[in-house]
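Hi R.,

Here's the chain you asked about this morning:
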Amino acid sequence: MASPPTDIDHFLSAEFTHLVIGGGTAGLVVATRLAEREDIVVGILEAGLPAYDEPGINVPGRFCETLGTEYDWQFATVPQPGFNGRALPWPRGKVLGGSAALNIMTWNRACKEDYDAWEELGNEGWGWEGML
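And the predicted structure, written out as tokens:
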């Protein structure tokens, strides 16, 4: 597999068979799977920049440092009636790696009621007891 073009002039002069829009987790997985075939040349368009050496993304202990920065689209929800009309921040990644880059290698487990609700919807084995 050829190394990807990283500068804009090289990218614009390249010929791609497929163009993936969005360099977040899903887009990069799709691009990688496509690029496994030798007859396919994939380009990836990402609005944000790569942040290979950004400690706020790459060091787990620096969780949330990139929220509200150039790596975040800084979206907000519409005003929420249940929160007295307040709009809430809705961080979304504007960086190669997408929102996963803002999550900084963290994972939060849902509460028991969330899992049990999945099972109550007809998903046998997806409740708290079946999954955990």
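The chain has a mean pLDDT of 91.

Let me know if you need anything else.
M.
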